[in-house]
Amino acid sequence: MWGWLKRLLGGAEAAAAAVPAGAAARPQRELMDVVDAFLTQNPQSTPYSVHALIAAGGAELADSQTVLQACERIAAHGYQDPLNPTLREELKKHEILPYLQWQAASGIGREEYCNENTIRKLIRRFRDEAG
């Protein structure tokens, strides 16, 4: 959403030069780009908000704190928090982005979010596989 403005002002080149080499391997999205994509793709509240957050690019944000900020901004628009209460309670703050990345890479379907027990199993599976 704001990429055109950065290019116009010339800040994109400086920002790209400041990115560490390891971070360049993973595409990164800007906070407001993800919020805008979430709101655009979901004109109404969705029960599959974690999946909608990933589809909007949430797994491509810079860090877990940025994911939490995106969730706050989405909720400020009248939507439920994309991270359901079970994820909020069970995941440590620093695990949120890695969990979203793992879910995106693993192709976790909506059916695996049918209740708290299945979500807790997903979290255990994430921790086992992430090592």
Quick structural gist:
By secondary structure, the protein is mainly alpha-helical.
What report would you give on this structure?
- The chain has 131 residues and is an all-alpha fold.
- The protein has one domain (27-130).
- 59% of the residues lie in helices and 0% in strands.
- The protein has helices at 3-9, 11-17, 31-41, 49-55, 64-76, 85-90, 96-106, 116-130.
- Helix 3 (31-41) packs across helix 5.
- The radius of gyration is 15 Å and the shape is globular.
- It starts with a helix and ends with a helix.
- The relative contact order is 0.12.
- The model is unreliable at 4-23 (pLDDT under 50).
Ordered list of secondary-structure elements with their pairings:
Elements: H1 3-9, H2 11-17, H3 31-41, H4 49-55, H5 64-76, H6 85-90, H7 96-106, H8 116-130
Helix pairs in contact: 3-5
Overall tally of domains? 1
- Which class of secondary structure composition applies to the elements? mainly alpha
Number of strands: 0
User: What gap, in angstroms, lies between the N and C termini?
Assistant: 35 Å
Structural Rg = 15 Å
Shape: globular
What is the number of helical segments per DSSP (H or I, 4+ residues)?
8
The secondary-structure element order is HHHHHHHH
Q: State the share of residues found in helices, binned by percent.
A: 55-70%
Low-confidence stretches: 4-23
Let me know the largest β-sheet.
Answer: none
The average pLDDT is: 85
Strand fraction equals: under 5%
